[in-house]
Amino acid sequence: MKISLEQFDKAFENRIRLQIMSVLVANESYDFNSLKDLLDVTDGNLASHLKALEKEEYIQVQKSFIGRKPNTKYLASENGRAAFKLHLKALENLIKQQK
Fold first, then answer.
1. Would you list the DSSP string of 25-67?
2. Residue 36's domain spans which residues?
3. Does residue 6 fall inside a structural domain?
4. What is the pLDDT of residue 1?
5. 1: nearest Cα among 70, 84, 66, 95
6. Which of 46, 53, 90, 94 could form a disulfide with 59 if both were Cys (CB 3.0 to 4.6 A apart)?
7. Collapsing DSSP states into helix, strand and coil, what is residue 2?
8. Pair 32, 72: CB distance under 8 Å
């Protein structure tokens, strides 16, 4: 049985991006340092994956200050949520086809 790869979103091919979206879809928002700690990645690695998701308009960025310290929070956009759900549905279909 042939599997159509068109349903899969290339933005979620990388496991870190998949993890980022999982966290952001499950939570209202997450800040940079909390994401970094949760996913156990470096600053640069996380920043590059966040930038890729932001370029696709799958996440939104909110910058603010807490006291004198800058704080960057990330939220899943409506487009991001929809794309992520479609990607998960494609994964579920792939699994069902293998049974």
1. HHSS-EEHHHHHHHHT--HHHHHHHHHHHHHTT-EEEEEEEET
2. 13-97
3. no
4. 47
5. 95
6. 53
7. coil
8. yes
Could you give phi then psi for residue 40, rounded to 5 degrees? 55, 55
Q: Which of 6, 36, 9, 5 is nearest to 23 (CA)?
A: 36
- The 10 Å Cβ neighbour count of residue 21 is 25
Q: Give Cα 56 distance to the centre of its chain.
A: 11
CATH number of the domain enclosing 86: 1.10.10.10
Which tokens is 64 given? 């603010």
Q: Is 16 helix (H, G, I), strand (E, B) or coil?
A: helix
d(CA 15, CA 12): 7
4 pLDDT more than 70: no
Q: Please report whether residue 85 resides in a domain.
A: yes
CA distances from 6 to 12, 14, 29, 56, 86 (A): 13, 16, 29, 17, 11
The 10s digit of each residue's pLDDT in 58-86 is 999 999 998 999 999 999 999 999 999 99
